[in-house]
Write a structure and sequence with these properties.
By secondary structure, the protein is an all-alpha fold. Helix content is 67%, strand content 0%. The protein has helices at 3-29, 38-49, 55-77, 84-106, 116-142, 155-170, 185-194, 209-225, 230-251, 261-288, 293-310, 320-327, 336-340, 344-366, 379-390, 402-421. The longest helix has 28 residues, at 261-288. The model has no long low-confidence stretch (mean pLDDT 85).
Length: 432
């Protein structure tokens, strides 16, 4: 592990772990309304042992896995060098211990339901998060000496941005109409597929073209770095990207969310267009931009893309009283939105913010703004996360949230740590 990274992790290890622990407690114990009645708690504990599965449990499982995957990720990303298996075991055990504490606290509430299944889901989430960090570091380390466009694998951008795009395809920000149908996920999916109507082709979210095109571009760039020709890379990216989009859009029916055909067409064409653009432009870009010019261009363009994500629906809010109301609201309370809205979108909202900013950290790991001083690390990425979130103050229909700033900052930090742990050297400073 690089010496500068080791020192940074030593200083940040426990502050970061404690900060995420507080997020976990806020997300799981908010609005607990405790009732200190030992007898009632014993009764609830007995009831909790009678496990019955409902369709809502599938959503709870996803939420819990995602939430505690973050714990496993933070634990492993801050672990000291050489403590691989030991750190992984500790990540899982501490995640289970936190989960047991949370479920025990819920036994003293009339409005919450404790379940042994939650302990299983939470422990599984911690395992997933920890393994993802280890696998990502090892995967990137194997390709450290291979060619890349900016000194780090394009798969970091393709993977991070691709996950965000698939999240948007699964549960879109502005299209969450639901069918009035209940039952298991397969029954919901079957109903949603039968409910697709040709008139849904009239719903064409053209503003989302600029959000989905970069996914095809980054995927084609990653395939080209693997040794394929530019044209072949474009074809593969268009085919694979389109297939993933279609499958994801269809799977939303399992959550009883409608499946309009128009957005699927727009998204598939957008990803394919992005892949074609990569096949045409990458040769010219590699010849035209050299040295620090490439990361400068990439950072500037990607910052613009992130702004487009956060400025939707692109309608300005011009009423100063609305700005004031947003600033005086509960925007500063971490995870307030996720705890108030207990559905799949609250999960996607968290993961999308994380994945969108993860590539920023990866880029800053090899091309910091400066080689020394406060601009030599992730500060520019954190400032970007704060600025794009703050821009929602002036967008109609959007809300300001400290949680989104923290999630974006976590994505930047995680991308930086993974690339640095993989042994990628600093190529130079982005600002000459």
């Amino acid at each position: 592990m690089p010496e500068d990274l080791s020192r940074s992790l030593d200083r940040a290890r426990w502050p970061l772990r404690i900060a995420y622990l507080l997020i976990l407690l806020l997300a799981t114990l908010t609005n607990l309304d405790p009732v200190l009645d030992a007898g009632a708690a014993v009764t609830r504990a007995g009831d909790a042992m009678n496990v019955t599965l409902t369709p809502k449990d599938a959503l709870d499982a996803v939420r819990n896995v995602v939430l505690f995957a973050g714990w496993g990720l933070v634990w492993m990303a801050t672990a000291p060098a050489g403590a691989g298996l030991r750190s992984l075991v500790l990540a899982v055990l501490t995640g289970i211990a936190i989960s047991i504490g949370v479920e025990t606290a819920q036994l003293f509430s009339d409005v919450r339901r404790a379940s042994p299944l939650d302990v299983l889901y939470n422990g599984g989430g911690a395992v997933i998060g920890a393994i993802v960090v280890v696998a990502a570091v090892r995967r990137l380390a194997r390709h450290r000496t291979e060619r890349s466009f900016v000194g780090m694998p394009a798969v970091v951008f393709a993977g991070g941005y691709g996950m965000a795009v698939l999240g948007e395809a699964l549960i879109p920000l502005f299209r969450q109409e639901r069918h009035s149908v209940w039952g298991d996920p397969l029954s919901r999916l079957a109903y949603s597929l039968r409910a697709i109507e040709p008139v849904s082709f009239g719903v064409l979210p053209l503003s989302e073209i600029v959000l989905f095109m970069p996914a095809g571009f980054f995927l084609a760039a990653a395939i080209a770095e693997a040794g394929n020709g530019y044209r072949r890379s474009g074809w593969i990216a268009a085919t694979v990207g389109s297939a993933l989009i279609v499958v994801t859009e269809v799977l939303r029916g399992a959550a009883s969310v409608t499946i309009p055909a128009g957005p699927i067409v727009v998204h598939v064409l957008s990803v394919s267009a992005g892949a074609a653009a990569a096949a045409l432009l990458l040769p010219w870009l590699t010849r035209t931009f050299r040295g620090a010019e490439r990361p400068q261009l990439l950072f500037a363009v990607y910052a613009g893309i992130l702004a487009l994500w956060h400025l939707r629906p692109y309608i300005p809010e011009t009423d100063p009283s609305t700005w004031f109301a947003r600033l005086t609201g509960h925007w500063w309370m971490p995870m307030a939105f996720a705890t108030a809205r207990m559905d799949l979108f609250s999960v996607i909202d968290v993961t999308n913010g994380f994945f969108l900013f993860l590539p920023v950290g990866g880029l800053l790991a090899v091309w910091p703004f400066r080689r020394a001083g406060p601009w030599s690390g992730i500060v520019p990425g954190i400032m970007l996360a704060v600025l794009v979130e703050a821009s929602q103050l002036f967008v109609a229909g959007r809300t300001l949230a400290l949680a989104d700033m923290l999630i974006g900052a976590a994505g930047v930090w995680t991308g930086w740590v993974i690339v640095r742990r993989a042994g990628y050297p600093v190529r130079g400073q982005m600002l000459s």
